[in-house]
Amino acid sequence: MTRNLSITLGLLLVLALGFGVFAVVRAATGDSGPSAAERVPQEVLVRENSHYLDRNEGAKVTVVEFLDFECPACAQQYPVMEDIREKYEGEIDFVIRYFPLPGHVNAEASAAAAEAAARQDAFEEMYAKLFETQQEWGGAGEPTPQVFVGYAEELGLDVDQFTEDMQDPELLERIKADIPDGSKAGVQGTPTIFVNGLPMSSVPSEKELSDVIDKELES
Predict the structure, then answer these.
(1) What pLDDT score was predicted for residue 13?
(2) C-alpha to C-alpha distances, 208 to 59, 82, 113, 131, 141, nearest whole angstrom
(3) Domain boundaries, the chain
């Protein structure tokens, strides 16, 4: 065995042992999630005009999701969030914030569809429709607003009003207004989810979310 190879193997062994000690300490201390010091202030995560899918008087827990309707990972997260909403019905608040990504052609158009639907008190219906149909319009080479107009018709909305609202500059400004808050909260991609200000891991499982929510409900 050469001297250089011996040194290399020795370093690898030290690193392996170090990682093992770190893993044991992490497990022993229960350090598996964000600490209280990492909480993002509520005023950054929730604004007066933020959209609530669930809102309960006296709720001890607020879940906030920054999302992009064209993001495949957000579509993957959607059924998990629906399960969480069902599991904690009546106990938690659930807030949606827009964070359209520049690489998605329909990111703003789909958010505009949700916002236009909100003006007809149908935000939740369009929210669900967009994720359930994402494969039909996601990844298009150019914006497809006509697809979203079709969804508005399917949902029984006033199509003329919906079309006009989707083109309203104020509506687009409302969508873009969520981005600075997301950036301030440390959002770099979607979905990014917070539980009482605690940032969750990327695409968290139902168990990960439940563990944090349960802890917050008990505190």
Answers:
(1) 36
(2) 20, 14, 31, 22, 36
(3) 1-32, 36-218
160: tokens are 């003329």
pTM for this predicted structure: 0.82
Q: Supply 19's token pair.
A: 């990682």
Residue reference for tokens 């497809």:
144
Measured between its terminal Cα atoms, the distance across the chain in Å is 58
- Kind of pairing, strands 61-67 and 92-98? parallel
Higher pLDDT, 203 or 10: 203
The pair phi, psi for residue 22, each rounded to 5°, is -60, -40
Distance CA 97, CA 43 (A): 13
Task: Check pLDDT > 90 for residue 15.
Answer: no
Those residues with Cβ within 8 angstroms of residue 93's Cβ, 6 or more apart along the chain or in another chain? 52, 54, 55, 56, 59, 61, 62, 63
Instruction: Work out the angle at residue 186's Cα, subtended by the Cα atoms of residues 89 and 49, and round it to the nearest 5 degrees.
Output: 50
Domain covering 36-218 in this structure, CATH number: 3.40.30.10
CA distance 91 to 144: 37
Query: What are the structure tokens assigned to 26, written together?
Result: 């992490």
pLDDT grade, residue 17 (50/70/90)?
A: very low
